[in-house]
Design brief:
This protein is mostly helical. The protein is 75% helix and 2% strand. The protein is built from 20 helices and three strands. α2 packs antiparallel against α3, α4 runs parallel beside α6 and α7 packs parallel to α13.
Length: 773
C-alpha cells in the first residue's frame, strides 16, 4: 500500500504532459493578421510584465515567512504528541513555487490562445470554441498537475524516505510538515487574486466610465487608452487569479482530509493500517479526477449555430459522471471493511466505503447545486437579471438597489445546499466525511478550471476582433463565446465558494485536533469576542480591496481623460492611444495596494492564536460564516449587474447609448470590484486563515505547555473543565433521607424518663472535595 505514494506524482505528470500537448497544438494555430498579432503582443507583454513585477515582490514575502517558519520550528522541543520540524519552511516554499508556476504557465498560454481564437472565429464557431477551451485546459491541467506533483513528491521525501520518521508516527509527522505546502499555495493565491483583481478592475472601471459613458465609444474600441490594460486584466485576474484560487482550494481539501485521517481503527480484525488507507484515499480520488477531467475535455465540441454552453456542460458533467464510477471503486478498494473514527467532541463515528462514497457524491451534488443556483441569479437569460435591467430605466440608483437585493437573496439557496452537504456528510462519516465532500466538489478541478479560464480567453478574443476591425460575423461568434464565458465564470465562482466553505470547515477541524481544542464554547466571552472579531474581518478586507480599486480607477480615469484631451485626433481615430501608460498605472497600483490585505490575512491568526487558542477558534468560525455569505453576495450581485448591462446591449429597454444602458454601466462599474476583486478573494481569505492556524497549532501548544498557568492567557482564558466529584460512599441502611441535601434524619433528644438513651446512628459522611483538574 505504501507504494501508492509513488503513483501520486505520476498523476501530476500525466496532467502536465497533457497540458504540454495542448500548448503545442495551440501554437500551431493561425494567428491572423498583422494588426491582430500587434494587439495580442501588447496584451501578452502587459500580462507577463505584471506577473514578473508581482513575483519580484512576493519572493521577499516567501523568503521572510520561510525564515520565520524555520526559526519558530527550531525553538523548543519537538515531541511525538506535538511534532514540529524546520522542513515546514521547505514545504511552504514548494507550495508557493508550484502555485506561481501554475499561474505563469496558464496565463502564458491564455495570452497565446486569445488571438488564435479570434483567427479561428473567422472560419467557424466550433474551431474558435476548441482553441479557447484548449487554452483554458492548459490552465486547469497545470493547476492539478503541479498540485499533485508537488504534494506527492514531498510525501515521498518525508515519509517514504523516512526523513521525519517511519511507520504510523512517520506518516503523522509527514502530514504535519506537508501542511506548510498548503500555506504556501494559499499565500500566493491571496496575493494573486487581490493583485489581479485590483489590476483588472482599475482598468475596466476607467475604460467603462470614460469610454462608454463620457465619450460614447464602444467597449474594446482601440481609441480607448485603457482597452489594452482591460484585456491584460482579464488574464491576470480571471486566469492567473482564479487558477491560484482553485490551486489552493484543491491542495487545502487534500491536506485537510489527510490530517483528519488519524485516530481511525478497523471494526474487527483486518490487516494493514486504516490511517494509511484514509490518507491515501484523497490522493487517489484527486489522481483519478485528473484522468476523468482529461477524458471530459474530448467531449467538448459544437456545430456552427450550436450552443457553446451545451458543449461545455457535456464535458463538465461527462467528467463528473466518470468520476462517480471511479470514486465508488476507489472507496471500495481503499476502505474494504468498516472503520471507526474518533471525532473530536462527538466520540466514535463508524463509516464504510459506501458512506465515504456517499459523502463524495453529496459534495459533488452540492457543488452542482450551488453552481446552478448561481447561474440562475446571474444569467442574462433569467428573470433576476431582467428585473435589474428593467430597474435601469429609472436610473442608476434603482439599478443598484435591484442588484444589491438580488445579491442578498442569492445567498439563501447556496447556503442551504452547503448546510445540507455538511450535515449529510457528517452523518455519513464524521468530520472526515465533510472533508471528503469538499474533495468531491473539487475532484474534477482540471475541467472545471478549463471551463472557467475559457471565459477570459473568449473575452479577449472579442476585444481583439473589435480592435482589429474584423467583419461583424467574427465579432458575433466571439460574442457568443463570451456570453457563455460570463455564465461559466459565475458557475466557477459558485463552485469556488461552495468548496471554500467545506474546505475551511475541514481545515478548521484539523486545527482543533492539532491545537487540542475539543470544543468552541460560545458562552465563553473570549470565544465570543473572537467570533465577533472574525466576522468583522471579511468586511474590513473587502473594504481594503474596494478602496484599492477605487483609488487605482481614479488614476486611470484621469489618465484616459488626459489622453482624449491632449492627443489630437484620438477620438476621431486618426491618432494612436498611449496604451503603455494605462498598463503602467494598473500594474503599480495593483502591486502597491495588494500588500496590506495580504499581510492582514496572514498576521491576524498568528497574533490571536498566540494570545489565546480558543479566541482563534472563535475567530475562524466568524471568518468562515461571514466570509462565505459576503463572498456569495458580492459575486452574484456583481455578476447580475454585468449581465443586466449585456441584456440591455442586446437591444432591450432601449439598447446601447440609452439612459437605461448608462444606468446599467454605472451598476456594472459598482459590481466590478464586487465580483472580480473582493468577492473571490474572500474564498481564499477564509481558507488561508484556517491554514495559518493549522500550521501554527504545534507552536501554540508548545508555547502553552511551557507557560506559567497564572500568567499565560492561553491557559487563563481557557474554559475550565467541570469539577470531577469523587464517587459517593455506599449507602448505609437507615431511615429514609429527607430534603434535597439527602442528610440523614437526626434523632430527637430523649429525656431521662424516655429510656436508656438515643439509638446510635452512623455519622453522615463529609461532602467529598472536588478533584482539581
Amino acid at each position: 500500500m505504501n507504494n501508492l505514494f509513488y503513483v501520486v506524482p505520476a498523476f501530476g505528470l500525466a496532467a502536465l504532459l497533457f497540458a504540454f500537448w495542448k500548448t503545442q497544438w495551440i501554437k500551431k494555430q493561425d494567428t491572423g493578421t498583422d494588426r491582430m498579432r500587434e494587439i495580442s503582443g501588447y496584451v501578452r507583454e502587459g500580462a507577463m510584465a505584471f506577473l514578473n513585477a508581482e513575483y519580484r515582490v512576493l519572493i521577499w514575502f516567501v523568503l521572510g515567512v520561510a525564515a520565520l517558519l524555520i526559526i519558530s520550528n527550531m525553538l523548543g522541543k519537538s515531541t511525538p504528541e506535538n511534532f514540529k520540524h524546520p522542513l515546514m519552511a521547505f514545504s511552504f516554499i514548494i507550495g508557493a513555487l508550484c502555485s506561481v508556476l501554475s499561474g505563469y504557465f496558464g496565463m502564458k498560454v491564455a495570452t497565446l490562445a486569445n488571438v488564435r481564437t479570434t483567427a479561428a472565429a473567422r472560419t467557424s464557431l466550433n474551431k474558435a470554441l476548441r482553441v479557447a477551451f484548449s487554452g483554458g485546459t492548459v490552465m486547469g491541467m497545470s493547476v492539478v498537475g503541479l498540485a499533485l506533483l508537488g504534494l506527492g513528491t514531498l510525501l515521498i521525501i518525508y515519509y517514504m524516505l523516512g526523513i521525519v520518521g517511519t511507520g504510523e508516527v512517520g506518516l503523522r509527522n509527514s502530514i504535519t510538515v506537508v501542511s506548510g505546502y498548503s500555506l504556501g499555495a494559499s499565500s500566493i493565491a491571496l496575493f494573486a487574486r487581490v493583485g489581479g483583481g485590483i489590476y483588472t478592475k482599475a482598468a475596466d472601471v476607467g475604460a467603462d466610465l470614460v469610454g462608454k459613458i463620457e465619450a460614447g465609444i464602444p467597449e474594446d474600441d482601440p481609441r480607448n487608452p485603457a482597452t489594452i490594460a482591460d484585456n491584460v486584466g482579464d488574464n491576470v485576474g480571471d486566469v492567473a487569479g482564479m487558477g491560484a484560487d482553485l490551486f489552493e482550494s484543491y491542495v487545502g481539501a487534500i491536506v485537510g482530509t489527510m490530517v483528519l485521517s488519524f485516530g481511525a481503527g478497523w471494526v474487527g480484525n483486518y490487516e494493514g493500517s486504516p490511517e494509511l488507507r484514509l490518507v491515501l484515499l484523497p490522493l487517489m480520488l484527486a489522481g483519478v479526477g485528473v484522468i476523468a477531467s482529461i477524458l471530459g475535455t474530448f467531449m467538448v465540441s459544437t456545430k456552427e449555430g450550436g450552443s457553446p454552453q451545451t458543449a461545455l456542460n457535456i464535458g463538465t458533467f461527462g467528467a463528473a459522471i466518470l468520476m462517480l464510477f471511479a470514486t465508488a471503486g476507489i472507496c471500495y478498494w481503499m476502505v474494504p471493511v468498516e472503520v471507526k473514527m474518533h471525532v473530536l467532541g462527538y466520540g466514535i463515528v463508524k463509516a464504510t466505503w459506501l458512506k465515504l462514497f456517499g459523502a463524495t457524491v453529496i459534495g459533488l451534488l452540492a457543488g452542482i447545486a450551488v453552481g446552478v443556483t448561481t447561474e440562475y441569479y446571474c444569467s442574462k437569460d433569467r428573470a433576476p437579471v431582467h428585473k435589474i435591467a428593467m430597474a435601469s430605466q429609472t436610473g442608476a440608483a434603482t439599478n443598484i438597489i435591484a442588484g444589491l437585493a438580488n445579491g442578498m437573496v442569492s445567498t439563501a439557496l447556496p447556503i442551504i445546499w452547503i448546510c445540507i452537504a455538511i450535515m449529510v456528510s457528517f452523518k455519513l462519516a464524521g468530520l472526515y466525511g465533510i472533508a471528503v465532500a469538499a474533495l468531491g466538489m473539487l475532484s474534477t478541478t482540471g475541467i472545471q478550471l478549463a471551463v472557467d479560464a475559457y471565459g477570459p480567453i473568449a473575452d479577449n478574443a472579442g476585444g481583439l476582433a473589435e480592435m482589429a476591425e474584423l467583419p461583424p460575423e467574427v465579432r458575433e461568434r466571439t460574442d457568443k463565446l463570451d456570453a457563455v464565458g460570463n455564465t461559466t465564470a459565475a458557475i466557477g465562482k459558485g463552485f469556488a465558494i461552495g468548496s471554500a466553505a467545506l474546505t475551511a470547515l475541514a481545515l478548521f477541524s484539523a486545527f482543533q485536533i492539532q491545537a487540542k481544542v475539543p470544543t468552541i464554547d460560545v458562552s465563553n466571552p473570549v470565544v465570543m469576542a473572537g467570533l465577533f472579531f472574525g466576522a468583522m474581518l471579511p468586511f474590513l478586507f473587502s473594504a481594503m480591496c474596494m478602496t484599492a480599486v477605487g483609488e487605482a480607477a481614479n488614476e486611470m480615469i484621469i489618465e484616459v481623460r488626459r489622453q482624449f484631451k491632449e492627443i489630437p485626433g484620438l477620438l476621431e481615430g486618426t491618432a494612436k492611444a498611449d496604451y503603455a501608460k494605462c498598463v503602467e498605472i494598473s500594474t503599480k497600483a495593483a502591486i502597491r495596494k495588494m500588500i496590506v490585505p495580504g499581510l492582514l490575512a496572514v498576521s491576524v491568526p498568528v497574533i490571536v492564536g498566540f494570545w489565546n487558542k480558543f479566541a482563534l477558534g472563535g475567530m475562524l468560525a466568524g471568518v468562515t460564516v461571514s466570509g462565505v455569505l459576503l463572498a456569495i453576495f458580492q459575486a452574484n450581485a456583481g455578476g447580475s449587474w454585468d449581465n443586466a448591462k449585456k441584456y440591455i446591449e442586446d437591444g432591450n429597454f432601449g439598447g446601447k447609448k440609452s439612459d437605461a444602458h448608462k444606468a446599467a454601466v454605472t451598476g456594472d462599474t459598482v459590481g466590478d470590484p464586487f465580483k472580480d476583486t473582493s468577492g473571490p478573494s474572500l474564498n481564499i481569505l477564509i481558507k488561508l486563515m484556517s491554514v495559518v492556524a493549522l500550521v501554527i497549532a504545534p507552536l501554540i501548544v508548545g508555547a502553552e505547555s511551557k507557560a506559567d498557568p497564572k500568567t499565560n492567557a492561553l491557559v487563563v482564558a481557557a474554559p475550565a473543565p467541570a469539577p470531577q466529584v469523587a464517587p459517593a460512599p455506599a449507602p448505609v441502611p437507615g431511615p429514609r433521607p429527607m430534603g434535597p441535601r439527602m442528610m440523614p434524619r437526626q434523632p430527637r433528644p430523649m429525656g431521662p424518663a424516655s429510656g436508656p438513651g438515643p439509638i446510635p446512628r452512623p455519622a453522615p459522611a463529609p461532602a467529598p472535595a472536588p478533584v482539581t483538574p
